Amino acid sequence: MYIKGRKRSKSTCLTIKDAELDRISSLPGNVTDQILLHLPIKEALRTSVLSSKWRNKWYTMPNLVFDKHCVSDATFQDPSGISNKFLRIVDHVLLLHSGSIDKFKICDKYQNLIGMSPATDTARWILHLIRRSIKELVLDIRTGQSYKIPWCLFSCQSLHHLELTSCWLKPPTTFEGFRNLESLSLIEVTMTQDAFENLIFKCPLLETLELVNLHGFTQINIHTPNLKSLLIVGKFDDISFDKTFQFVTVLVDLSLYLNSETNQRRLHGCSSSLLNFFNHRPRIVGLVMKNYFLKYLAAGVVPVKLPTPCIHLSHLLLNINFNDLKEISAALCLLRSSPNLRKLKISARIEEQTDLLTPASYCWEDIFSRPDMPLKVQHVTIDIISGFQSELDFIRFLLLNSPMLEKMTVKPLGNVRPELVTELIRFKSASGEAEVIYHVEDSS
């Protein structure tokens, strides 16, 4: 009886197992497609052993992402074999793939998956992909050496999204543009000024643009009418926009180390960069200005208000040196010109060569008595402050001119003088509901 019982139990297990296999095999095509869509390449290939119906399913995966997960952990113990195995995997998948390819991504962030000479391999893959009408191409390859993008890429009109990292970009003279490109990201890319401007100009549908630490030129000129989102990080002498930003909904993130001294000399006695930047761009919804960009905007003669208010601006982040009179003026100009600002974040920036302002250095009493347009800001965060008088005067200005303020959070830099809390409590506020929170990071 015991032996017979074991056989019946085994048979029952086999039946259950077979039923589970049948259930997997009978899944609708759209369900299996979604399963494969969320699996890494390595795991997607393994599904071919589930059943005969799954054997060739991965051949038609629309999104192909190759990263360190494609190779086993054991491979990383043998650095000499990493590159060969990774390249074989990519070639194998492309060779057997039979469907359309919407997305192709290589993510080689310092793992040396491709090797030190990616030019030949990427050229081979790109040539294969443009024949398959690739829509999204991401080459995040960081080997420490720039490689040239092959000219064949510039004939690909099916691209909607393009992201390139650590490469040399030189479009051919016959380049007619990417007519369908909507999103472009260039990171650590080397190219000439003319090549950059020609590339941007010939992407008429471009809506999203990310530029991070570009090399080969020092001035950014952007000419594209449909841009809705912009991120710029890097060091440049100047930046200009011509017939750009038909803003509907846009977040502009500008984290630039601009050559502010050159800009100050160039605009001495002239209208400020603030006017030039916001000219014909009143529909900005969110604006993030990091590092020294406010210093750049403060060059020239700063107006009290912008001629055309930014009526759509609701979110603003500023990085400001409170000991720089021009930066304070530029910040106040922005605040006065943004009647519908709801969220404001200000981070203090300290420069060693800047002299500290004295209470008499800036006519704050004139500012307080001026009939400014009341701010509609509801949430304010001010961090990295050191407790200088100029910082406190700015906080006092915000409290007195923000009748709709609900919450203000003040975050000091390290341990500042204890009297700071007392002074903040004494400040009058135009809002009877305003809550001022003094937030100190726990260093323990």
UniProtKB/TrEMBL annotation:
Q: Please indicate if the UniProt record lists Ligase as a keyword.
A: yes
Q: Does the keyword Ion transport apply?
A: no
> InterPro entries attached here?
F-box-like_dom_sf (IPR036047), F-box_dom (IPR001810), LRR_dom_sf (IPR032675), LRR_FXL15/At3g58940/PEG3-like (IPR055411)
Keywords, ordered alphabetically: Ligase
Q: Where are the transmembrane segments?
A: none
Source taxon at top rank: Eukaryota
Record domain F-box: where: 21-69
Q: Which Pfam families match?
A: F-box, LRR_At5g56370
Which Gene Ontology molecular-function terms are recorded?
Answer: ligase activity
Check the record and name the SUPFAM superfamilies matching this protein. F-box domain (SSF81383), RNI-like (SSF52047)
The entry's protein name is Ubiquitin-protein ligase, putative
